[in-house]
Write a structure and sequence with these properties.
- By secondary structure, the protein is α+β, with helices and mostly antiparallel strands.
- Helices cover 63% and strands 11% of the residues.
- It has 11 helices and 5 strands; from the N terminus they run ααααααααβαββαββα.
- The protein has a 5-stranded mixed sheet with strand order 1-2-3-5-4, covered by helices on one side.
- A hairpin with a 4-residue loop joins strand 2 and strand 3.
- Helix 4 packs antiparallel against helix 5 and helix 6 (132-213) packs antiparallel against helix 7.
- The radius of gyration is 43 Å and the shape is rod-shaped.
- The chain starts with 9 loop residues before the first helix and ends with a helix.
Length: 396
């Protein structure tokens, strides 16, 4: 099996070439690092060349390079030696900690430290001379010091990478929050647009259909009057909504949000559109004022329920019931269920979705569907909106 070594990086080639040239210059000048060795100065070129090859692999194969460099450094002790060989070994030791695996980065400094201590104690016991401590210091400078430096550099790089990752995650979360805020605002404005305009457009569609289908001048005139009234009111609601969208003051809610005090006008408009609607308000007359979000949601639920009754209900009475048990407001709207006898407007189902969303945003419960009653089958819309007592006290 042929082992293919990885291609050295550019910086590794530069370090290897520069170290080799320095080593050859020292060898040519006869500057030896050791004397009285069994091998001559020519043999010092062998470890020099081997360590040059290790420099080429310092970042791509750091552990292999360190093992080979350690063997070459031991062999260099039997020659006249070269200062460049020692310096290249320290660089390989440093690179093994910086570019090696996490396990190797933890193991190499400990191993080099133990070797330094062992050499110091061993030579001190063998020579019985305090000068042996200097040999241990030299061994520490060559092996332990570059390993410890590599640990510091690696820890700094890992901390920098972790900080960068945290910054990227924070930016991602901020972008997700922004997207969610935009989506929530779009959904809110869609509900506002649907609830404000759908009622008027439904009335226009139904009365225009009646005017076209009945050949009666008075009926057509009455229908045109209702159509004009709903058109004017719908345009006013659209202008108000556009004003909210263009307002950059940061107030996301309309300045004059509809409340339950406006139910009288809402029901009067529904009666002009042709609905037989009654209001059963069982709330205590001296009760605390409800929070604005609850009143807005309740008003919109009643408004959309009347719109659905206008579009889909058969002939009969529509009843709007309000009650205020402890810590809650309940809204119930019942309308005759069956095939309508008159003209009807198409529906998309967005109204029920909007009512459910409004109730869910306040932590309430929403139900809708057909059910049986003493007067026959009816379509029932029921919503419970929780009221925080703290909010009630703040509104008093």
């Amino acid at each position: 099996m042929v082992v293919t070594l990885p291609r050295p990086q550019r910086v590794d080639v530069q370090i290897a070439v520069g170290s080799l040239l320095c080593g050859l210059a020292l060898w040519a000048l006869g500057l030896e690092s050791q004397t009285d060795r069994p091998l001559g100065d020519t043999w010092a070129l062998v470890p020099l060349l081997v360590l040059t090859g290790c420099e080429l692999l310092r970042s791509s194969r750091p552990q292999f390079a360190l093992v080979t460099a350690s063997i070459a450094l031991v062999a260099d002790q039997f020659t006249a030696g070269n200062l460049a060989s020692i310096l290249m070994f320290t660089d390989v030791m440093y690179a093994a900690v910086v570019y090696g695996t996490p396990a190797a980065a933890r193991r190499i400094p400990i191993t080099s430290g133990l070797i330094t201590v062992a050499l110091t104690v061993g030579f001190l016991a063998w020579w019985q001379d305090p000068q042996a401590v200097l040999l241990g210091v030299a061994a520490g400078i060559v092996s332990f010091t570059p390993a410890a430096t590599g640990v510091l550099v690696r820890n700094h790089r890992e901390a920098t990478a972790a900080a960068k990752l945290r910054a990227e995650q924070t930016a991602l979360l901020a972008e997700m929050d922004r997207a969610q805020a935009v989506s929530a605002e779009r959904a809110r404005m869609a509900r506002e647009l649907h609830d404000m305009v759908a009622n008027h457009l439904s009335a226009i569609a139904i009365h225009s259909t009646a005017a076209l289908s009945l050949d009666d001048a008075q009926t057509s005139k009455d229908a045109l009057g209702v159509i004009r009234e709903n058109s004017v009111e719908g345009l006013a609601e659209m202008r108000r909504l556009i004003g909210i969208l263009r307002d950059d003051s940061g107030d996301l809610e309309p300045a004059a949000a509809p409340t339950l005090d406006g139910l009288g006008a809402l029901l009067a408009g529904a009666r002009r559109d042709g609905l037989d609607v009654t209001l059963d308000d069982a709330r205590p007359p001296e009760g605390p004022k409800l929070p604005t979000p609850v009143e807005l949601a309740a008003y919109r639920i009643v408004q959309e329920s009347l719109t659905n009754a206008l579009k889909h209900a058969s002939a009969g009475r529509v009843t709007v019931s309000l009650a205020q048990p402890p810590r809650a407001l309940t809204i119930r709207v019942t309308s005759p269920y069956g095939d309508p006898s008159g003209p009807r407007a198409p529906g998309s189902g967005a109204g029920l979705v909007g009512m459910h969303e409004r109730t869910e945003l306040l932590g309430g419960a929403f139900e809708s569907g057909p059910e049986s009653s003493p007067d026959g089958k009816v379509w029932n819309v029921f919503a419970t909106l929780p009221v925080d007592p703290a909010d009630e006290g703040a509104k008093e």
